[in-house]
Specification:
11% helix, three-stranded antiparallel beta sheet, globular, mainly beta, 12 strands, 139 residues, 1 helix
Length: 139
């Protein structure tokens, strides 16, 4: 009887539009790759890398409407069981961008020097989170 009530309730919610199971991602997505090439696109997309330089990618279905952003790394501290600030890089982007990548340049080195788990954020000019993701860095 409980299964019948659960099934009917779920069917009702889907039929009336209260549950939208067709949209897996409605927010900007942040992810990582080894590099970005204008001809090849993203090279080596993953969530586990060895220490070194990486490229941070952000993709959205709509314009991000941002001009000043930061990419911040927080590293997981196994002793405290919490993520702690590691480093932060500032960038200027165009407001109409839906797809943007952040890579090593003269102002930032987007380098993961130590193995560990990191939480990476794309932040707006008020340090509000636009997108985030987890990454594992190994030796």
């Amino acid at each position: 009887m409980k299964n019948l009530i659960y099934t009917f309730s779920l069917f009702f919610l889907i039929a009336t539009g209260y549950v939208d199971l067709t949209r897996a991602q409605s927010e900007p997505v942040l992810y990582f790759c080894e590099s970005y090439d204008s001809d090849l696109g993203e090279v080596g997309v993953a969530d586990r890398f060895t220490t070194g330089y990486l490229t941070v990618m952000v993709k959205s279905d709509y314009a991000l409407d941002l001009d000043e952003v930061s990419v911040q790394f927080d590293k997981y501290n196994f002793r405290t069981g919490k993520f702690e600030y590691y480093k932060k890089f500032s960038y200027n982007v165009d407001r109409d961008m839906k797809y943007v990548y952040f890579a090593k340049n003269e102002d930032s080195d987007l380098k993961f020097e130590e193995a560990g788990f990191y939480r990476v954020f794309l932040l707006d000019h008020r340090d509000k989170t636009v997108a985030s993701a987890l990454i594992e860095i190994i030796d």
